[in-house]
Design brief:
The chain has helices spanning about 20-30, 45-50, 50-60, 80-90, 105-115, 140-155, 165-180, 200-205, 215-220, 225-235; strands at about 10-15, 40, 65-70, 95-100, 120-125, 160, 185-190, 210-215. It is an alpha/beta fold and about 240 residues long. α7 (about 165-180) links the parallel β6 (about 160) and β7 (about 185-190). The two termini are about 20 Å apart.
């Protein structure tokens, strides 16, 4: 289906807050910053205001791609994928982030449904916070994370969410996915600034195509434009 973002490397401001006013301000101040590749809309905004309204707000300023993160979408039964993803597609967003924590049956069906309706999909697996993996006191078996990513790759997914605050894990996922996906392999990574990740380190580990998802580091800054510019300056050159 091709790349979501026109750049090989970019910054993706994450609108993980609660008001349309904040979204309008974020987009107004950052949409023409060189290196901004997309905007990520979070579930809090979508539940409160509706995806269509949010898309319309972004489109007041720019045609930059819009990614919807249901936080964490793809955690229901297989049968609910068609209706949910169709509504996401019809809202006008360009791509959907899924985390297949409900297992491979849901993962396979939701990916297929997204592909059938032409909705680009970005697949995750490992998250950035403590006590996620069983080895760190969480519920998710460490050895199943690779399976999540590898199955997505085998089903034709090109874009993957990886934990940007764990550069060794970014490098690991590049190592196992690149033989399947090839040159089109693209990583999207949160976990910077507030969660301690170093953007330039994660970008180097990710390879040629990398999009840094940055929330509080931009939208909580006194000068959002300056913060976005500083983030973009940390990306390796094209």
């Amino acid at each position: 289906m091709g790349s979501v973002v026109k750049y090989k490397r970019s910054i993706v401001p994450a609108a993980d807050f609660d008001t349309v006013r904040k979204l309008r301000k974020l987009v107004q101040e950052t949409h023409d910053v060189k290196g901004i590749g997309a905007y990520k809309l979070g579930a809090e905004l979508a539940v409160g205001h509706g995806l269509k309204k949010l898309v319309e707000t972004v489109r007041e300023f720019t045609g930059i791609p819009i990614v919807y993160d249901h936080q964490k979408g793809m955690t229901d039964i297989p049968d609910t994928g068609e209706g949910f993803l169709t509504m996401v597609k019809e809202s006008g967003v360009d791509a959907f982030i899924g985390f297949p924590l409900s297992g491979p049956a849901t993962q396979e069906e939701w990916i297929r449904q997204a592909q059938d309706i032409g909705l680009k999909i970005i697949m995750g697996g490992e998250m950035t916070h403590p006590k996620f993996k069983s080895s760190e006191g969480g519920y998710i078996a460490d050895d199943k994370l690779d399976e999540m990513y590898l199955l997505s790759a085998r089903l034709g997914v090109l874009d993957f969410v990886v934990p940007g605050n764990r550069k060794e894990r970014v490098a690991h996922y590049h190592e196992i996915l690149e033989p399947i996906v090839g040159d089109e392999l693209t990583f999207w990574a949160p976990g910077f600034v507030a969660q301690g990740g170093v953007l330039s380190d994660a970008a180097k580990a990710a390879g040629d195509s990398f999009h840094a998802i940055v929330g509080r580091g931009i939208y909580a800054a006194k000068d959002m434009r300056k913060a976005a510019e500083e983030m973009a300056a940390q990306l390796p050159g094209e």
